[in-house]
Amino acid sequence: MPSDDHDADGRDRPRRRRAGTYDEDERPAPRRPLSASVAARAGLQHIAELSGKTPTGVTSIERSEDGWVIGIEVIEDRRIPSSTDILGVYQVEVDMDGELVTYRRIRRYPRGQSDRG
User: CA 100 to CA 69: how far, in whole Å?
Assistant: First the structure.
């Protein structure tokens, strides 16, 4: 009778294992958390690629349960003089790999307008 490790001819049979199980030497390396600066750069890149607009900078960043939520200011409409440009603030969420999860524009305003208190 063949053993669990050998077939009927006595040859070694490949070991089967349940999905998601690993031998000690095959375990994937633990994921390093994505830093705030790397997450911000990823958010800037995603906004530039998807919107085709020029980001001017990061306005906020906050760690979420599964990644980062980043506020990014973007030039929506260039005007002359530049003090009348229309800006937008986008909220971007990236996961711990820097991949885009969601984005949306949350505000649009003329450059010269100050924040209301």
Answer: 10
Bin 88: left if φ > 0, else alpha if -120 < ψ < 50, else beta.
beta
Backbone angles phi, psi at 13, to 5 degrees: -105, 135
Distance of alpha carbon 23 from alpha carbon 106, whole angstroms: 47
For 57-115, what is each residue's pLDDT tens digit?
Answer: 999 999 999 999 999 999 999 999 988 999 999 999 999 999 999 999 999 999 877 66
Domains of the chain by residue range: 36-110
pTM: 0.68
| 8 Å CB contact between 101 and 66 | yes
Strand order in the sheet with 86-95: 54-63, 67-77, 86-95, 100-110
- How does pLDDT run across 28-55, given as a tens digit for each residue? 555 678 999 999 999 999 999 999 998 9
Q: Which residues of 65-99 are buried (b: 16+ CB within 10 A; e: fewer)?
A: eebbbbbbbbbbeeeeeeeebebbbbbbbbeeebe
- What tokens were used for 38? 């790397």
